[in-house]
Amino acid sequence: MRVPVSWLRDYVDLPDDVSAADLANRLTFLGLKLEALETAAADLVGPLVVGRVLDVEEETHSNGKTIRWCQVDVRQTEPRGVVCGAANFAVGDLVVVALPGAVLPGGFEISARKTYGHVSDGMICSARELGLGDDHTGIIVLGADDASPGDDAATVLHLRDDVIELEINPDRAYALSLRGVARDASIAYDIPFRDPALDLAASQAGEGWPVRVEDPEGCQVFTALEVTGLDPSAATPRWMERRLQLAGMRPISLAVDVTNYVMLELGNPIHGYDRDSLRGEIVVRRARPGERLTTLDDVVRDLDPEDLLIIDDRGPIGLAGVMGGAETELGPTTSNLVIEAAHFDSVTVARSARRHKLPSEASKRFERGVDPTLGPTAARRVADLLVQLGGGQIAPTATVVGAAPPPRPVVMDAQLPSRVAGFPIADGTACHALERVGCVVTAVAGRLTVLPPPWRHDIGDPNDLVEEVVRVIGYDQVPSVLPAAPPGRGLTRHQRLRRRVGTALSAAGYVEALGSVFVGETDWDDLGLRCEDPRRRTLRVANPLADDYPLLRTTLLPGLLRTLARNVARAQGDVGLFEIGSVFLPAIGGPATVPDVGVERAPTVDELKELDATLPDQPLHVAIVLCGDRVPASWWGAAVPASWADAVEAARTVGLALGVELRVVPSRGEPWHPGRCAEILVGETSVGLAGELHPRVAGAFGLPRPSAAAELDLRALLAHARSIVSAPRLSSYPVGKEDVALVVEQAVPAVEVEAALRSGGGELLESVRLFDVYAGEQIGSGRKSLAFALRFRAPDRTLTETEIKTARDAAVAEAGRRVQAAQRT
Q1: Do 22 and 5 meet the contact criterion of CB atoms below 8 Å apart?
Q2: Average pLDDT score over the chain
Q3: Residue 685 pairs with which residues in a beta bridge?
Q4: In 615-667, which residue ranges form alpha helices assigned H by DSSP?
């Protein structure tokens, strides 16, 4: 909403020394957010005066162009000679002259210069040259009563003004009018407010143009008032044109400009019909199948049954609250009008405007809420201005169908504003604040019964009244008090454990990424999931943010792999990412029935349980993806690429952070490489998979080969987690080192051999590390040699050679028993 400050002063006597910036700041404190602040014609400097044309000589030059050599009286020593190309003025007319030294908008400097054989001592200006519009076909001709030669043309044309542009929130619909903004300005400076609606007389209801409303829910009030005998040639006065321009609207004709002016002034959209074009009774109803309407923008629109229409005997003549029809448009010959000032349903108007992609100044106001009592007054205001400026006669009575609904009282504890704001507010202060915004307040025994004004549709609850009280008193009066933290609170066990996992993965070099919870059908194909894979059974979102991703994820991998691919595409090829988030698993029995719980009260405990039962299972998962080089190449040697082992190690990092002992066994599953995939177990329970991505999956996501990934059920891990993870106990006694090479079948996993060694080594075995794998003719076909470094240590003594040898032999023997391992000699 653009608010010219000079127009605002018509309704509130702002102090003379108040600047536009200070006014905008005060309005911001009242909840009207400042969007922009500008000074119209700020770039216009120097002498700009009114001149009278004394003489005109037309000359045609060799290039075929006709110019006019003019003598113009600007009330200085001698008339000025000015060359002008326009032909829409004559001797005796008053024109606007920019004298040498003036600078017009756009930095155009005026000087005396020789052109077409004459020295042009200034310039006669058009509207576009002064920033008053796009018309450049002719210069501005002033009326005889507008000014005299030598007057300051900037003042005559109302060029200079401060304009405050406000961003109006949906609950501040009243501020889409000068009337509403002026009321808040009077509150800001605690000065009287002259309500233009109270100063105007409404037309008497009675016989007028026939109107029938078939949909009273869509149109609560419809006012029709006739004006006849208007002079079609009457021009809009310059002061009104300028105010419309500053408010962001284009002047068109007197009849149209007056309806726009009153809409901006009072906030009630007005529509005018050419009475001579109307055919019979005006009817308000919903559209019927197959109906069409040509709107004022000359677009033929197919109407929807939910559209609210204005029709006459020939059919639709307007889309209610949005835009009128072309057949009854006010034209250059219109002399008889029917003025419509109606109150339409906000939801109906909003849907029609969006359905037809037809936002308008009228729909913007109706969809936010218009004062339903204002119609007869607004219609009379338009009629009075038309007759005042263009002649004619107003019908003695107006047709008024329907009535505005009475306001609903809101009861509030008088001390509620104090409790909410956090500082004392007297009952009388609260009453005064509510009265300032237009409420009628009755105070009885510490309770306030408040009737909201008809222009405040957003007030219907005691908390709304609190907001009004506090904003009138001033948000800056609310004290800044640091709330005291209640004792005995902090992170829950679940939160601490979850953070511990994130911290451990970050310390291991991975970067946390927050992916989208939405996936598409193509993601399952890219992951290579089979048709029967349970991860393909998903929940579909009714209103997805993107049509390509309408499903809720059942695995974290699609979003995380897309993020990894985006990094690779931007030349960040050595990347490790992780995400901790929920997946959404639909109930096996199908969708549950959602209980119907309204918003007028809080749901009961049983209703909350029913609502929770309709939600899908949402287990917490953690996923890790990586590609590129784990160790970069340098002077110390070649690069070490990321592999399936790194994904397994990342899973072990999660288990270590939670104090959970994980087992790793060979497995297979999508989207992993069938020979390089491991299943992660806690006891005998599977909690996820880790390994190298299948080459087809890596290619589908645009990832290099090899790329690795792991995904674990973090909810299951948290169930086994230890709140306190003990630090390792370090012994100060020397370590005993033994290396063994064991020959096993090629299919035996190294992890099973390691588990057997740990079991046989007993408490003295401190660590086991695989440091070499060999396969060749020396050990036979189908077999491999695994070399392990065994480290033995006691916490309370130095081990003897016999003790170390006994423990080593026990470990080797257990490996022989479990996996038929034979010690290589």
Answers
A1: no
A2: 91
A3: 682
A4: 644-658
- Phi, psi angles (nearest 5°) of residue 149: -55, 140
Angle subtended at Cα 399 by Cα 398 and Cα 405, rounded to the nearest 5 degrees: 110
As a 3-state breakdown, the chain gives helix, strand, coil percent values, each rounded to 5, of 30, 30, 40
**SS3 for 30?**
coil
- The count of residues in the chain is 825
Q: How far is CA 786 from CA 69, 396, 616, 746, 824, in A?
A: 107, 109, 47, 10, 9
DSSP label of 669: -
On the CB side of 213, how many CA atoms lie within 13 Å of its CA? 19
Classify strands 397-402 and 219-228 as parallel, antiparallel or unpaired. Answer: antiparallel
Q: How far apart are CA 790 and CA 735, in angstroms?
A: 10
Q: Are 733 and 794 in contact (CB under 8 A)?
A: yes
Q: Are strands 822-823 and 783-792 parallel, antiparallel or unpaired?
A: unpaired
pLDDT (mean) for 527-553: 90
Which of 193, 169, 35 is CA-nearest to residue 458? Answer: 169
Structure-block tokens of residue 820: 């038929």
- What's the pLDDT tens digit per position in 125-181? 998 888 887 776 788 898 877 788 989 998 888 888 999 999 998 888 999 999 999
Say if residues 541 and 552 touch (Cβ distance below 8 Å).
Answer: yes
Residue 145 neighbours by CB under 8 Å, 6+ apart = none
Query: Are 439 and 408 in contact, with CB atoms under 8 Å apart?
Result: no
- With vertex at residue 816, the alpha carbon angle to CA 811 and CA 821, rounded to the nearest 5 degrees, is 110
Phi, psi of 399 (to 5 degrees): -80, 125
* Between residues 206 and 192, the one the model is more confident about: 192
Residue 670 region, left (φ>0) first, then alpha (ψ -120 to 50), else beta?
beta
Distance, CA of 64 to CA of 116 (rounded, Å): 12
**Which string of b and e fits 89-108 if b means at least 16 CB within 10 Å?**
beeebbbbbbbbebebbeee
Give the tens place of pLDDT for each residue, 476-514.
888 888 877 777 777 888 999 999 999 999 999 999 999
Among 286, 121, 117, 151, smallest CA distance to 215 is for 286
Find out whether 32 and 178 touch, Cβ atoms under 8 Å. no
Pairing of strands 94-98, 123-124: antiparallel
Burial-class residue 489 by CB neighbours within 10 Å (0-12, 13-18, 19+): exposed
Q: Do residues 626 and 576 lie in contact, with contact meaning Cβ atoms separated by under 8 Å?
A: yes
Phi, psi for 35 (deg, rounded to 5): -100, -45
DSSP 520: -
pTM of the model: 0.66
The per-residue pLDDT for 511 is 95
CB 162 within 8 A of CB 39: yes
* Location of structure tokens 């107006």: 398
Q: Is 95 helix (H, G, I), strand (E, B) or coil?
A: strand
The pLDDT of 17-35, averaged and rounded, is 91
Q: How far apart are CA 242 and CA 459, in angstroms?
A: 35
Tally of CB atoms within 10 A around 791: 17
The answer to whether the peptide bond before residue 671 is cis (omega within 30 degrees of 0) is: yes
d(CA 280, CA 269): 23
The answer to whether 474 touches 189, Cβ cutoff 8 Å, is: no
* Amino acid making up residue 550: P
